[in-house]
Sequence to fold (220 residues):
Amino acid sequence: MICFPLKTETLPPATHTNCFVVGRDNFVVIDAAARDDSERQKLFVLIDSFIAKDFVCRAIIVSHQHEDHFGAETVLQKRLRGKFDLEIPVAAHRLTAESLRGKVKIGEFLAGGEVFQLNDGNRKSFELKVLYTPGHTRGHLAFYDEAFGFLLSSENVVGTGSVLIALPEGNMKDYLASLERLKNLRNRVFCVARTARRFLMRGVKSKVTSRIDSKEKGKF
Fold:
C-alpha cells in the first residue's frame, strides 16, 4: 500500500489529504483528492508507472463527498482512457453519488460488503473489504484488510484535528455506531485520511474508544 499525501483545502492544522493506492498487480485508488495540477501530476506519474508494468487498476474510489476527498478522480479516469485505452470505474456509495451529482460521475456503487481481490508487492493476494460507516457523512466508506490487519478509516478517525459531524450530512448517532463497529474489528494498525506526519497508527481499539468517549462527552 502506498500513502500519497495530496495538498488540499482540508481542515487546519492538516494541509494534505492522504490518497491511498492499495495493491500492486491489482490495485485501487482511494481519494484522489488533488485539485492543483502539480499535485495531480505527481499522482498520475505513479499510476502511469503501475499501468506501464501491466498492473491492473480495479477502481478509483471516493470515500465520501467532502471537498478535500475528491478532485482528481475524473481527470485520472479520462487520462487512463486516453493514454492506455482503459475503462476504470469511479466508485462510491450511492448516497455519495447523489451528493456529488453534477460534480463527479459515479459509475459504480459500493454499498458495503464488497471485496476487492488485490495483490501486494510480492504478488501475494489479499482482500480489501468495503465497509459502510455512515455518520461523518451519509455515504461514508472505510476499507478493511483483515489478513494484514489494516483499516483505512477514511474520515472516521483522523491523525490531525478532529472529525466534524455536521448536519445535514452528519449524524452523531450513526457516527458512534460506526465507531463501535470499527472498534471491534480484528486489526493491528489503521491508516488515516488526514494527518500532519504519520498515516499509520497503532492501538486501534484504544484510539477508537477514545474517539467514542470524546464525542459522547461533546468534545469535538
Remarks:
- The chain has one domain: 2-216.
